[in-house]
Amino acid sequence: MKLLCVLVGEKSVFSLDIDGEELVADLKDAIKIENSNKIKCDAAKLKLYLARKGNAWLSDSEPSAQQLIKGNVDDDIESMLNCKPLMPTWTIQDCLNENQMPAPQLRQIHLLVVVPRQILSISRNSKTAKTVERYETLSKTLASQQQVESLSKAIRTILEGKDEVTPFVVLESSSGMGKTQMAFNLDATGQFDVYHIMCDNVDDKGQDISAAYASRTQVFRTCLENDFRMTHGPDTGSIALLRGKNNLSLYGFIYAALLEKNELEKSCLDT
Fold it and tell me: Crinkler effector protein N-terminal domain spans which residues (predicted)?
């Protein structure tokens, strides 16, 4: 039989030719093989649902089908996903018979494929709390110093200027001159919201503070790597490669950071 399948929420539609006597577990394997460049989790973790309205297949002309193909999930699709997923030990035909479904035809959607989502931690490492506290305690004293006030004023002048500028400010100096502490100092002034991501090697224990944000930094790098692969460009850090994209993993990271979330939900799809 030929099944038309949709990766829910991912704007991905594909067909599979498979024997109805094959197990649902075999169907999961076939789905992963067909989408090997996208699905990175184990095939067994996929959840499969019949795209049914009553005892009929979802027609591709239905509004809910059109939304599904665009990556959206409406109430009709939600109701389908609220049913029990197909049992991996059953044959495909047994699943159709159990639900009194007719033989699949063209111009229909037959299978909803849900890829599990992975929760990534972007919180500060709790085991390094004392290290961070040292920086924060010192920053309360240093925040009112002339050097910090001067830098704060310079940054505000740049950001509030009418000319278009790059959306970042670089503090440049030799190693060990206090750039990391200055970030905490700026945060302590109350004029800026500072979000720490370490740019050095997170495995390098040269600075204990690196370990505090190691998990967050690794997630940030993973988001960038995914986005650069999507643009099919060299991993050069070029902003121009990313600015033309409406959907980026990096946007999800920034959104979670702005909401002060400690976790980032990531699909097991390699977008």
Answer: 1-114
